Amino acid sequence: MKKQNLFFSLMLFLIFVIPVYTASGASESENILDISAMLTNLNYREIQSGMVIDSEKGTIPGIELSFSHQPSSSILFLRGITNLSYGSLDYNGGTWGGTALAFSHNSTLFNLEGDIGLCIGSKKILILYSGVGHTFWNRGMSNSTPGDYDEHYSLYYLPVGVILNIKQDGDLSFSIDASLRYMFSGTVTAFFSGINPGFNDVALNLGSAVGGNIKANIIYTISKDYSLLITPWYENSSNGQSNVGTLTFNGVPSTGVQEPNSTTNKYGINVGIRLDL
Fold first, then answer.
1. How far does CA 236 lie from the centroid of its chain?
2. Are residues 78 and 115 in contact, defined by beta-carbon separation less than 8 angstroms?
């Protein structure tokens, strides 16, 4: 918990404190705010012994905010990104006893990331960056369907990435942003008490894994301060198998609980505006 609080504090420092301090001390700076509506297609799978034992699929809407600061007189790059999505996903799986289950339920996805990097080239054609991020998934917000219960996934990641500004002149410009992500300090809490109040809620530690993200920014300049932004993107993430927790009923141990390996593929498109502040 102390490690998670440390990294969360670092994220807030990167996103809010450094940009304000740098902007106040620079005679010339470039601050960019992106505000976008987003559409996310999610495909989540839990895998055990090479077989998919359950899955979660669907398309949900959301919103993303991104603020970046690039002082014109410096090679420094600073950025904060956050997004929130909410909607219905389709579950396919089964009970521990082997009974098939299929239903729809609402889910919430949240992500927060802070980055710091270096700009290369006279027009900052290349940006190398790293940072820290946190993602949260309220999977399966229970809708009273038999066998359904809430699960909260929380994990941290270290992104290492590159931004390539392919074309920067004229009304239309393009850039590619790609990163690898090392996932760590992942946890999942299964709220079995939602099935029966006699059960306890079980918290498990997830194994570390490596994922990635790539996005293509298409920017059409409308005026000096406003641009139209279209961003198709793809993201892959994984969780390693967890430790074994104990499920109890009325305080009496019942069975062991373990989260298997899982993988999540997400792709989508963001459409919004870019403000040069």
1. 10
2. yes
Pairing between β-strand 209-221 and β-strand 226-239 as defined by DSSP bridges: antiparallel
pLDDT string in tens for the chain (277-residue length): 444 444 444 544 444 444 444 444 444 448 999 999 999 999 999 998 888 999 999 999 999 999 999 887 889 999 999 999 999 999 998 877 778 888 888 999 999 999 999 999 877 889 999 999 999 999 876 555 666 788 999 999 999 999 999 876 778 999 999 999 999 999 999 999 888 899 999 999 999 999 999 999 999 999 988 999 999 999 999 999 999 999 999 999 999 999 999 999 999 999 999 999 8
Tokens matching residue 234? 């793809």
Question: What DSSP character marks residue 192?
Answer: G
> Which residues pair with residue 205 across a beta bridge?
187
CA distances from 23 to 26, 65, 73, 126 (A): 5, 19, 11, 21
Instruction: Tokens for 267, please give them.
Output: 């792709």
Read off the pTM.
Answer: 0.84
Domains of the chain from N-terminus onward: 2-276 (2.40.128.100)
Measure the N-to-C terminal CA separation of the chain; round to a whole number of Å: 37
Among residues 33, 41, 44, 31, the alpha carbon closest in space to that of 232 is found at 41
Contact by Cβ (8 Å): 8, 134: yes
Give the distance, in angstroms, between the CA of residue 31 and the centroid of all CA atoms in the same chain: 23
